[in-house]
């Protein structure tokens, strides 16, 4: 009996490192087609995070739904985060092929609903469904890389996924603006259907689950019990109770109002309940306590959360700077962001290729987060007069840093994880990444709008009146110059800059926190894991043969 066969005996968990010895690694044209399919999937999910940004003004005009603006983006991020761990469990207990097929179909259905939506509620529902599917796609792409590619080449392929992730996030507003201006905003969602359909066909035709990643047949009822739907519900509630008051605070409602304080307190309470629930669930938990307590996993998870926060804040708010302060169109702001796109792309490829040869992953985490911290700090020196050398140079610094370290935690986690823990470890790290995007983007938006409001209310026009805060918060960044007088712009533009710098300060702080988080893990090399993980496979095989089928702990 082979090692691969032994590992799956008596366990519903697959061996996700069956190709460590190269016997089952996919190569040649088949691997190329699979990578292409995965890249297309990641591209669509990442594109959906930002493509709607430049379409929102037209959507609000069509639906008369200014009060729903925040939910157009939040609904997607909410389910993208909340369902991340659930999909991780699914990849560990069901056929990987059918799980990712289900995720893609769900994402496509959500996109179709968004495209045909006739009102805000339908659009928000579609965004939520697409986000739930997107969570499964993101988890699946990294998990599949872990089972089909040769171990020493995984970081390079992960670098390709990271490049795709970053590029799609940055060009999203450009694509959304083009569709909205030239065709209709509905094509922001229709575009997912043909591309996603093609990727789906590629995976159906060419992805064969390696023998070592096939779970033994167990009753579906037992598998469903291990999915931790309760944990997903608690995460969703905690995020809703967190996001809602941040959208209200300081603008629609007072910070000390009962609604704002009540929801924030409820969020903290739900988080506490979630932690206790995860401890009680044990191995069935979406956040397996045994794994999250590992120093390395905790360090990488926190790094992922803070780095995602820093990355996405700059991704969202640099285009606003170019449009509001620089007067650029959506297309022009995307062009001014090219330095960030290109630098992060090249750095991701270089980092992915060098990670395994270098071995010491801390090099990438520390250097990357340091460059992000420096670049993020320099963004705070920008003013109302755009200087090309400044904003290009700062983007290069930040982009290189983000590219070097953004995909590193998942690859490091997979390299050190035991075979049976790879799916859960990957899901934990991706969960914290999307969590960082969700919580810090919401926090940045709150900081931005509050600082903007304070500045507007403290700077009167020459006639003694003030520019209404409600007017500015409902205008798009690109609409300021076409909607305001010169006198109003003299007050509004500095207010916008003050708000942006406050949001960027949070992003820079997140970069610093990611640097500190990387120091929690001990310094070690990934090279030593090749022999060690092969030994772990043999050890798990013997332990599995000599023990009864695993029963989830309560």
UniProtKB/TrEMBL annotation:
Keyword Transmembrane helix: yes
Organism superkingdom: Eukaryota
Matches recorded under CDD domains: MFS_Azr1_MDR_like
GO cellular component: plasma membrane
Region (Disordered): 1-21
Molecular functions (GO terms): transmembrane transporter activity
Membrane topology term: Multi-pass membrane protein
Residue ranges of every copy of the Major facilitator superfamily (MFS) profile domain listed in the record: 34-488
Keywords: Membrane, Transmembrane, Transmembrane helix, Transport
UniProt-listed InterPro entries: MFS, MFS_dom, MFS_trans_sf
Transmembrane spans: 25-47, 68-86, 98-117, 160-183, 189-209, 229-248, 260-277, 297-318, 338-356, 363-382, 394-416, 428-448, 503-523
Subcellular location: Membrane
Annotated PANTHER family: MAJOR FACILITATOR SUPERFAMILY, MAJOR FACILITATOR SUPERFAMILY (MFS) PROFILE DOMAIN-CONTAINING PROTEIN-RELATED
Name of the protein: Major facilitator superfamily (MFS) profile domain-containing protein
